[in-house]
Amino acid sequence: MSIHNSMLPLTDPVLVSAGTRVPRPGATLARRLVRRLPTVIAAVVLLFFILAAIAPYLLAPDDPLAINPAAAFSPPGPGHLLGTDESGRDIYSRIIHGARPSLLIGAAATAAGLGLALVLGIAAGFGGRWLDFGIGRILEVLFALPGLLLALVFIALAGPGVGTTVLAVALTTAPGYARVIRGQIIALRASPMVEAATVLGRSRWRILTAHILPNALAPVAVLATLGLGQAVLWAASLSFLGLGSPPPAPEWGTMLSAGRTYLSLAWWMTFFPGLAIVILAGSATVLSRSMKAASSQ
Amino acid sequence: MTTLKPVLQVTDLNVSFGPDTVVRGISLTVNPGECLALVGESGSGKSVTARSLLGLAGRGAHVRAKTLSVAGYDAQKLSTRGWRKLRGAHVGFILQDALTSLDPLRTVGKEIEDVLRLHGSASGSQRAARVIELLQAVGLDDPVRRAGQRSGELSGGMRQRALIASAIAMDPALIIADEPTTALDATIAAAVLGLLRDLRRGGAGMLLISHDLAAVSATADSIAVMANGRIVEQGPRAQVLEDPQHPYTRALLAAAPSGKPRFTRLSPSAGAPSSAPQPSGAATTAPPLGTVDAQPLLRARGLAKSFPMAGSADFRAVSSVDFELFPARTLGVVGESGSGKTTTARMALGLLVPDAGSVEFCGEPWSAAAESARRARRPSLGAIYQDPLSSFDPRLSTASLLADSLSFGATRNPRSYSGEISQLLEMVGLHPDLAPRNPATLSGGQRQRLAIARALAPKPKVLICDEPVSALDVSIQAQVLDLLDELQQSLGLSYLLISHDLAVIRHMSDDVLVMKAGEVVESGATESVFTNPQHSYTRALLAATSSES
């Protein structure tokens, strides 16, 4: 019995005609994002910092390391927009040039954290009861330690540097992502969609790669945007404690730390790098929240 | 009766939300002791009407009427406080889902007492006594114990009775019931409708809202049929049911599967005149069985399945189920919720391993085979579900879903299968223009057609249909049932059809299994089982459905 020799329209197609055209889901998502002003502002701010990271000389022509003792501790004004530090270096230039290490560490740490979380989450969600149990306990131990402490312990063992900062922050953020990925996979494994794919004769591998993972990762993308802001904050905290790039490198956390000594004398040395951290982390949070709202509508 | 003042008088009621008018100039009158049924399909505006009568039309709703007299009050002049006095005291409201209407953290007795406390002035002990009296009046056994239980501890039928008790606590002049029995099993629904009939005899007027013309026909004195915000037909029950004037009413009556012989069209077909149901060319019985090679496609022997329960003995979902499904035949499985129908279907699909017994497919072991061995044979055994949307990958378009199914999972790119995709869509009565759409943007009926198309793509011999039409409106249900009939006749498919709806099973099946509490209580050829039921449960089920129609 072949389907093809009896392919006739059996029911009146007019009853169920196409109706009005519905735009592609991607297009409506973009429109929803644009409709919200805070989202637009956050996106513009993030793009500004990304541009600063790619081409800092475009936004700040001054050398961030150029010393000018005569102009030390100049307050914000026409010559130096955001003032100068104890050696007369321009704070604005240093902040713009500091965007690269901050964003780079943030993005790399988020990516590394996600990668680690993917391995753990998929193994826990798909590897059977014992693996799930084992990974679950490891994650609980990681959750039990305060994040900064965990990162400090890791740096103490591995020595300071950009690479270790990235790994330390990744290690701190991975358990959260891993939990979400595992939860998504477990929920999707029991979903009618996966049951239907099983009934159609799909293999376990095909179901994992074609149905479960793409659907499980959508909410993770939202989390990762949120995590980017968080990772920038972690990285700044570590360099504030002297475990990131050493001074006089233009790094936001290092600048905060250096300005702390002169807080009563030159508040701008601390205030503006701190503001940069807040604005960048805040923008990432706003953007991730609107992504979440748009995807759950 | 005519000298009494009506408890509900509505003339020219309009309800709009912004630019959308959802109720257009309807008029209703309910006299004391009378029950008016407002019947319509989803989106007809019947629930908005009910809510407008209670001042609960919702945010942004604009309600206008020439007269809107509810329980003797001019509702258009009521303040928020006035509405509150009216609701509960003079108008009782019964909703479909008692689980969400009752506070899960408070006892049923407290919920009913609230109504008495807010609207009456009786003392605490008088109220407690009245609660017990009310629970007894709605037919709950052991009312003292029930009053101390929370809604989660009660069954669906008991919850609905408790909700009715709270609605009638103040002896309201008008009771509005919105789909009061839709969520209930047939035997329980019949009992709840009986209770509503008794209330009406007590003198209250009743507005009964339902999507199901058959379900309300035994309770209502008069019927108003609603479509697209308008009342298309209104009159005494017998007149509307036996001599319907409007084509929509006729289509609704024709769409109900109860009492229609097998292979009778339920939906108006493209060519045939739209009113009377026409037998579709073919014989009205199933194709005769070949006596020589009458090998069952699917055979189950002694199937049993238990699930572990926390803190108690294992729950026996299915115990000892036998059936045989022959080529080009339909085996109906009917039973109420918890009877083990879906567990049986999942074992037949090879998704659950039976504790005992076995399933054979095409004469070879199926449930006993390893999944890797089953996988190659799975295309011959398809399935459709109650909620088709949840069985689709939400990221895939209609065309991609079909490409995935046609290619046995090798690709989702619809380009190489565009011809086959159009043919499949047309075969299930969908316009090929729908191919690029995401299934989430399709209607309920279109989604189920798409689910059928996807199941048909690998050319199955057997389709297992688990409640395929229970989420659909009656007229859409009729179209989908007709489609399943047509596909069976043209492709020689076999169906294992699972439904709680006796009328659907009776209309669609050659043979039937009646299940109760995990066991098959009766089985055999459909007509002989239903015309001459042997088991008391089958008789009870039949009685419950016939009292509705």
Automatic annotation (TrEMBL), chain B:
InterPro entries: AAA+_ATPase, ABC_transp_ATP-bind, ABC_transporter-like_ATP-bd, ABC_transporter-like_CS, Oligopep_ABC_C, P-loop_NTPase. It comes from the Bacteria. The keyword Nucleotide-binding applies. Gene3D superfamilies: P-loop containing nucleotide triphosphate hydrolases (3.40.50.300). GO terms for molecular function: ATP binding; ATP hydrolysis activity. Residues 267-288 have a biased composition (Low complexity). The keyword Transport applies. Pfam families: ABC_tran (PF00005), oligo_HPY (PF08352). This is ABC transporter ATP-binding protein. Keywords: ATP-binding, Nucleotide-binding, Transport.
